[in-house]
Every structure is written in structure tokens, then in C-alpha cells.
Specification:
By secondary structure, the protein is an alpha/beta fold. It has helices at residues 17-28, 45-61, 79-94, 112-130, 141-153, 158-161, 184-194, 210-225, 230-259, 272-276, 280-295, 303-314, and strands at residues 37-40, 67-73, 98-103, 134-136, 167-170, 173-176, 260-261, 267-271, 320-323, 327-332, 335-340. It folds into two domains: 14-234, Rossmann fold; 262-340, Uridine Diphospho-n-acetylenolpyruvylglucosamine Reductase, domain 3 (2-Layer Sandwich). A hairpin with a 5-residue loop joins strand 7 (260-261) and strand 8 (267-271). The N and C termini lie far apart (93 Å).
């Protein structure tokens, strides 16, 4: 049997962006075969390296059918942001790639989370404009470790602590991350070896944004005081958490029919006694999949929403709580009922004659 070259531990000299990204593309089938792929390019080192690698990969293997460069202008850094946009536009032209741009509205600039949501909405629009069904982002292993730490400090559960997947959905779009096992050092090495220029975002140099604080303050201190290989340790932990998350998700899908009582459309009734027989963590997964069954999506459920549902389960008195997806959860006797809330009819304006 022919040995899989990606299964063996690579020689350190082979630990390059090319090897890691190519292995991820094949193993996880990241690239579309017939449709264009939108590549999110800010102009920074990670996204420029990703674009160059994907262009080279396409030249060698014919996948994807087309690369489309998508740039989101955040409107936050004035002339510097304009220069970033022009840099990416020129890069796309030099490499013979289609370029699309989107500018975020002023309202999106209120917080890091608002910017993230608006950025993915913009990428969704660019993907639709470019005929792409997937968007490639340049998240690296360093981004993954920082994301896990951020989520840990914010009280995330197993799903959040498992990190970003190589393939997933964010803001209604399919996202692929070919560089998720690639370090920033490997990105810079790739750019040096290929003589590729890139832009530096000055906003990444300050510690006010939470992610920058993690990157510039927390991770270096952890490396200096506790473990020089703290990034690798975090990623190993996330891998174990991912396995646990997959197990509980599988169990929840298997057990959900046993706790659901048939009901009308737009409504799911869960047997409280049956659910209370399971461990608390499994109950949380059952609620998540019940919401997904009802709403089609459960990604907006935060830990606070799950805790509110678990509280309904533990307390038999009639109570209710509202959760994302216009769903009202009510404890009624021995059951927890999840039901879509209908929009309240608008009241007609009445006028009185004087």
C-alpha cells in the first residue's frame, strides 16, 4: 500500500506553507471544482501569501476554475486603507485575477464584533457578485490559538473552544481556511522565498482591540513564563476538545428522537424527565439540535441562551425565555416547548377628528 505523504511527521525543512496548505486542500476538499473561489485579501502578509499560493496551485492543478479577489474596505484608516485597496487591486491585475471591492457602512465600525459581522456580510455580497459559493480566508495557526484564548476568556463551551474549522459557515457563507495549520513564521518565510510584497496594517500594532491584546501581550508572556510552545499546546488541546464536541454532537443527534414528542409545525416539545436523565452537557447539545431542527440553524445560541434553557428544564414551574431565531421556550408541566414566535401585527394608526 502506498504511504500517504501527509500522514508521516514532516521533516522540519518540509514544514512549509506549501506542504501544509496543499495537504489541507486535498484532505478536506477545500476548493470548488466548477465554481469560482472568492479569496478575501486585505493586503496583509497572510492573505497575500494565500492568494499567491492558490494562484500557483490553480496553475498546476486547474482548481478552482477561477480565483476572484475580494477586498473589504473598512473605512477606518483613511489614506492608509485606500492605499491597501489600491495595492490589492494592482496585485489582482498583475496576476490576471478579477477584483471586487466592498466598503463597509459607518454603522459597522462601532465594535470589533460589529465589524466582523459586517465584514462577512460584505464577503457574502462579493461572493454572490463573483458567482462564488465559497470564500477562502487566510486564518493561520496563530489566529486559531488567539481565537481559542479569546473564547476561553469569554466563557465559551466545547464548540467554541474547539476553534475554527477548516470548512464552515459564517454569516451565511461557506468559508474555507487552507492556512489554518500554517504559522505566521511560515507565511513570512513563504513571502521571502517568493519575493512578494505586502502591506502592514498599523491598527494591528496597538493593544486596544482584544485580539491584538492577546497577540501582543498575553501570548508572549505565556511563552516566556510557562511554555515556549504555547501555541502548539493550545492547538493540541483544541484538537482534543474537537473530538469531544463531535462525540456529544453525534450522541445528541442519536438521542433527540427519544426526547421529542410529536407536535405541530413550528413547534418542538421536549420531554423534561427524559432529558434530565442525561448529563448536563448532553442536555445542552440536545437543546442545540432541537433549536436547529426548528429554526434550521443554532449558531446564534450563546452559552447564556443554553443556560436559560437548562434552567427551564430544571425548574418545573411555568416559565419562559426568548432565544435567537424568534423562538420562545416555555416550561409547561413535564415538557419544555420550543415554538416560533409570530410577528406581532402592527397596530393601525387611528386619527381622531377635533
Amino acid at each position: 500500500m502506498k504511504k500517504d505523504p501527509n500522514a508521516a511527521r514532516p521533516n522540519p525543512r518540509d514544514a512549509t506553507l506549501e506542504r501544509s496548505a496543499a495537504g489541507a486542500i486535498v484532505r478536506d476538499r477545500l476548493l470548488p471544482v466548477r465554481n469560482p473561489l472568492l479569496v478575501a485579501v486585505s493586503g496583509g502578509p497572510d492573505s497575500v501569501a494565500l492568494l499567491h499560493f492558490l494562484a500557483s496551485y490553480r496553475a498546476r492543478f486547474g482548481q478552482p476554475s477561477e480565483l476572484v479577489v475580494g477586498h473589504v474596505h473598512h473605512g477606518l484608516r483613511g489614506a492608509e486603507a485606500d492605499a491597501d485597496c489600491e495595492f490589492v487591486r494592482d496585485l489582482a491585475a498583475r496576476w490576471g485575477l478579477r477584483f471586487l471591492e466592498s466598503r463597509l457602512p459607518v454603522a459597522a465600525r462601532r465594535s470589533e464584533e460589529a465589524l466582523r459581522i459586517a465584514r462577512y456580510a460584505a464577503l457574502r455580497g462579493l461572493a454572490e457578485e463573483g458567482g462564488a459559493r465559497r470564500v477562502a480566508t487566510a486564518h493561520t495557526a496563530d489566529d486559531q490559538a488567539e481565537t481559542i484564548l479569546l473564547r476561553l476568556f469569554r466563557g465559551a463551551g466545547l464548540r467554541g473552544l474547539s476553534g475554527m474549522p477548516r470548512r464552515g459557515r459564517v454569516g451565511g457563507i461557506r468559508v474555507v481556511r487552507p492556512l489554518l495549520a500554517v504559522t505566521r513564521d511560515q507565511v513570512l518565510d513563504y513571502l521571502r522565498r517568493n519575493g512578494i510584497a505586502y502591506r502592514v496594517d498599523s491598527s494591528n500594532l496597538g493593544t486596544e482591540p482584544a485580539r491584538n491584546f492577546i497577540r501582543l501581550e498575553i501570548v508572549p508572556r505565556l511563552q516566556g513564563r510557562l511554555n515556549p510552545s504555547v501555541r502548539e499546546a493550545i492547538l493540541r488541546g483544541a484538537s482534543a476538545i474537537r473530538e469531544a464536541d463531535a462525540y456529544f454532537a453525534s450522541e445528541a443527534r442519536r438521542l433527540l428522537p427519544e426526547v421529542v414528542r410529536p407536535d405541530g409545525p413550528g413547534k418542538i416539545t421536549l420531554d423534561a424527565a427524559r432529558m434530565l436523565a442525561y448529563p448536563n452537557l448532553l442536555r445542552a447539545y440536545l437543546f442545540r439540535y432541537a433549536v436547529q431542527e426548528l429554526h434550521g440553524d443554532s449558531r446564534d445560541l450563546a452559552s447564556a441562551h443554553i443556560e436559560a434553557l437548562l434552567s427551564l428544564l430544571r425548574n418545573s414551574g411555568r416559565r419562559s425565555t426568548d432565544i435567537p431565531g424568534s423562538i420562545r421556550a416555555t416550561r409547561s408541566g413535564g415538557f419544555v416547548v420550543l415554538e416560533r414566535r409570530l410577528a406581532e401585527p402592527r397596530q393601525r394608526k387611528t386619527s381622531s377628528k377635533t
